[in-house]
Write a structure and sequence with these properties.
The structure is a single chain. By secondary structure, this protein is an alpha/beta fold. It has 2 domains: about 150 residues, Quinone Oxidoreductase, Chain A, domain 1 (Alpha-Beta Complex), CATH 3.90.180; about 150 residues, Rossmann fold, CATH 3.40.50.720. Helix content is about 30%, strand content about 25%. Strands 3, 5, 6, 7, 8, 15 and 16 form a 7-stranded mixed beta sheet that branches. A 6-stranded parallel beta sheet has the order 11-10-9-12-13-14, with helices on both faces. A 3-stranded antiparallel beta sheet has the order 2-1-4, with no helix packed on it. Keywords: Oxidoreductase. This is NADP-dependent oxidoreductase.
Length: about 325
């Protein structure tokens, strides 16, 4: 089968190549992939940015989000059968989704929402699970609270705004002039056009922050929070608690503690808490997200769809940072 593989770290490390079709274990399903969602981390991994955290045996198949059809089931699989349409994230599981077939553990898969196609479904796992775990487990977002989600027109932003509104929160976000109407239509309450205003001079009294933008945006976001606010970052810096949760050694705990020292100090000055998080695959959570999609309470936002043969061009396009919603690879006909 064909797959997009990382042969080596660096600018020329990605190649479409023929690799063996995976075999499945007793608790796995083999999925013929119809579409695969692309995420910012898919550009970061080939550059070696997550070498200390994510271990790859090169060459490795890239990608984490997929939607497709079950073509084989393991002996202990009980929830799926051949022919089922499913979607899943395989992030951090030692396998990739940018391939014609993927062996998917049953526990991380869910039935595809019936009202959307494979392309729309493939756009959901990473952003959906990230927002779900951030809001429900880490930020513990409650009705009536205010949450700041920068870059509201991006892949994570377009989903997170909708989920936060379903949880009863007031949402503040930033976007460019051209995308103000889009994020308002998704439910954002306080929208700051970053080309005209600095959000830290406009917003105030926020209970929670979902950090999605690299650079000094997180430090600026701490200026708008109220005491006892919670800040969770998806882009770093990692902290010692994250290293401990992933079973890293004492050296990495020390390194991450030093890397996050400044942001933790700034958070303490605001009587707030800071944490870094990685998403984890979870089929039960994807099933709950699928219910929200099927009932029309959340809609996928797709910017552009590329054929698999243009996977590298798709990654380059996403890296430009101008996508409105998600970028998806179409592996085969929907």
């Amino acid at each position: 089968m064909q797959a997009l593989i990382l042969k080596r770290y660096g600018a020329d490390g990605l190649h479409i190549a023929d690799v063996p079709r995976p075999t499945i274990g007793p608790d796995e399903i083999l999925v013929r992939v119809h579409a695969a969602g692309i995420n910012p981390i898919d550009n970061m991994i080939p550059k070696g940015m997550f070498k200390p955290i994510l271990k790859f045996d090169l060459p490795a198949v890239m990608g984490s989000d997929l939607a497709g059809t079950v073509v084989e089931v393991g002996g202990r699989v009980s929830r799926f059968q051949v022919g089922d349409a499913v979607y899943a994230s395989v992030f951090g599981l030692g396998r990739g989704s940018f391939a014609e077939f993927v062996a998917v553990p049953e526990r991380v898969a869910a039935r595809k929402p019936a009202n959307v196609g494979f392309v729309e479904a493939a756009s959901l796992p990473m952003v959906g699970l990230t927002a779900w775990q951030a809001f429900k487990e880490r930020l513990r977002l409650e009705p009536g609270q205010k949450v700041f989600i920068p870059a509201g027109s991006g892949g994570i932003g377009t989903f997170a705004i909708q989920l936060a509104k379903q949880l009863g929160a007031t949402v503040g976000t930033t976007t460019s002039t051209a995308n103000v109407d889009l994020v308002r239509a998704l439910g954002a309450d306080d929208v700051v056009d970053y080309k005209r205003q600095a959000f830290e001079q406009v917003l105030q009294g926020y209970d929670a922050v979902l950090g999605t933008v690299r650079g000094d945006g997180l430090e600026k976001a701490l200026r708008i929070v109220r005491p006892h606010a919670r800040v969770v970052s998806l882009v770093g810096p990692p902290d010692a608690a994250f290293a401990a949760a992933r079973g890293m050694n004492v050296v990495m705990k020390l390194v991450f503690g030093l890397l996050s020292r400044k942001i933790r100090r700034l958070a303490r000055q605001r009587d707030a808490s800071y944490a870094f998080m990685f998403v984890r695959p979870d089929g039960a959570q994807l099933a709950a997200i699928g219910d929200l999609v099927e009932t029309g309470r959340i809609r996928p936002v797709i910017d552009k769809v590329f054929p698999f043969a243009d996977a590298r061009a798709a990654l380059d396009y996403l890296e430009q940072g101008r996508a409105k919603g998600k970028v998806v690879l179409r592996m085969s006909a929907d």
